[in-house]
Amino acid sequence: MPKRKLPGLSPNPMTNLIVTDIALRGVGRLTRRLTEKALLRTRYSADDAKAVVDGRSMAQTLVSVAIARVATRSVPGALIVGTGILGKTLWDRSKGKRSARIKGRKQMQDRMENADK
């Protein structure tokens, strides 16, 4: 079977794979940030939405990445993460809408303040 040439920037296929990986991660990150800001703008001003997204700590980012990785690696991982999200949603609802709203607003305010640092 003849070898096929893969198009790319470099004749080295590993270099092309690395470049593609970097490009995909960059586009994914940009898309994620734009989507988060768009969702937040339904309830907050554009400046506040930007502050919330920019105010995410390194720990919050690492936890999100780890949970997403667990969820996407296997069906049991997806079930565990999905069950955790469902459990958290039910827990918040059991506390009452007012209590959950107050706590959520406090967390958003903390994140906005964190963006200024």
TrEMBL record:
Where is composition skewed (Basic and acidic residues) in this entry? 107-117
Compositionally biased spans, kind Basic residues: 96-106
Task: Give the span(s) annotated as Disordered.
Answer: 96-117
Q: Name the domain of life this protein comes from.
A: Bacteria
The protein here is known as Uncharacterized protein
